[in-house]
């Protein structure tokens, strides 16, 4: 059995007045260092720690944004193609939110961790682009997933606003 569903995704591109490296530095400072979750989580799971203990351990490795950096890919090969622009892709998220969502719908793991890109165009302008997390998960008509996706989306929105140097209006 197979099925195909067309979904609508809100794609967000935000221009920054800050230079590329300043956005990168601010973003990474709010995410914290890359953590090897494959080393941290299995011993805890094998020891069958409580959810509270697992939560405490995960939160100890989460950046001040409430999200963490899973991986960073610099698209350096563009220089070989004669492009002077810079592009860095980030895989970010929070294992606790991912666990919560995949518990309700395992397929939601397709979108966790989420990705965003910081890039500089040929004119030297800096942009941050990502797909709205809540719109990605709207296809799963599950209130629990929708609530978690909204929380993650708010954290992402705040993170990007801080990285590009804009205050969020409450």
TrEMBL record:
Cite the InterPro entries for this sequence.
DUF302 (IPR005180), TT1751-like_sf (IPR035923)
Q: Which Gene3D superfamilies match?
A: TT1751-like domain
Q: Where is the DUF302 domain?
A: 89-132
Its transmembrane ranges are none
Domain of life (superkingdom): Bacteria
Q: What name does this protein carry?
A: DUF302 domain-containing protein
Source species: Dictyobacter halimunensis
């Amino acid at each position: 059995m197979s099925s195909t569903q067309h979904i609508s995704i809100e794609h967000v591109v935000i221009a920054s007045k800050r230079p590329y490296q300043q956005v990168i530095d601010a973003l990474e400072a709010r995410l914290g260092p890359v953590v090897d979750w494959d080393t941290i989580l299995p011993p805890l799971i094998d020891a069958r720690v409580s959810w509270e203990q697992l939560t405490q351990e995960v939160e100890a490795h989460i950046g001040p944004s409430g999200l963490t950096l899973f991986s960073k890919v610099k698209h350096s090969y563009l220089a070989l193609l004669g492009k002077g622009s810079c592009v860095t892709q980030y895989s970010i998220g929070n294992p606790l939110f991912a666990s919560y969502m995949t518990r309700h719908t395992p397929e939601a793991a397709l979108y966790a961790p989420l990705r965003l890109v910081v890039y500089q165009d040929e004119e030297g302008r800096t942009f941050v682009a990502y797909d709205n997390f809540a719109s990605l998960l709207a296809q799963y008509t599950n209130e629990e997933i929708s609530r978690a996706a909204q929380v993650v989306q708010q954290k992402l929105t705040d993170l990007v606003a801080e990285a590009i140097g804009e205050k969020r209006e409450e």
